[in-house]
């Protein structure tokens, strides 16, 4: 948005009040309420920062750094900053942040040495990476909780929202309350993935953690319906090796059967044939 870009450029050199911003951006005073909402949304996104004195500035000028947080084992986290050393965030300063969230971090300790990591705390979560988290479920009398692998905070699940999960299950929980200083995050079980050591369950967890849907979109399903079973015309353009015992060496739970091999002994050694799936024949550009 051009107005935001221009405002951020102004804030590089000046702190501005709401009234000054209206004048600088040439906004009509008749829409003060609307423009206040716009500034609030930019503040929520971590683009600008409102100080206690009522003036707006850039987050970095207020000692805040925006970035994506990586949380290791739920005990601590790091904020990666392009061109600089990462900022270390102790577990008790993660607040409600989850792995992958976009956050504003306030620097607490700066060693003054570019070779050493700085230390900070999560001031604000700007954007949630996802609202469905994977973890291990534990039942506790009339309620349960999920222990995410990359978060220091358990997620409370009421009895009505356990959905049949049992202690030790790998589950996906949808969070509807992210917690605060006094309360834990709260959510409901939306999927029981199974045994946390089972390959299928781990694959499902990996897909959920990366925001990948297991089901293909309708557009993709519709496209596959256009593929016929008659490949006689195409075979004429290729080398037909169907008479050979070509095999794949993928496991029974493999999802990507994209190559196969054939080996035969010859008078001088061995002959190896590797067949690669021609994805571009089925998946057209665009």
Automatic annotation (TrEMBL):
One of its GO terms (biological process) is mRNA catabolic process. Residues 146-217 form the RNase II/RNase R cold shock domain. Keywords: Exonuclease, Hydrolase, Nuclease. It holds the Pfam family OB_RNB. Residues 238-285 form the RNB domain. Residues 75-125 form the Ribonuclease B N-terminal OB domain. The keyword DNA repair does not apply. InterPro entries: CSD2, NA-bd_OB-fold, RNase_B_OB_dom, RNase_II/R, RNR_Ribonuclease. Coiled coil: none annotated. GO terms for cellular component: cytosol. It comes from the Bacteria. One of its GO terms (molecular function) is RNA binding. This is Ribonuclease B OB domain protein. It comes from Pseudoleptotrichia goodfellowii F0264.
